[in-house]
Amino acid sequence: MKFVANILFLGLLISISCQNKSGNHEQETAASNPNQALYDQVMAVHDEVMPKTDEIYRLKKELKEKVAKTPDLVVEKKKQLDQIIAELDSADHSMMDWMHKFNPLPDSVDQEKAREYLENEMEKIKKVRELINGSIQKAKDEVGKK
Question: In Å, what is the CA distance from 55 to each residue of 7, 16, 65, 141?
Answer without folding.
Answer: 52, 42, 15, 14
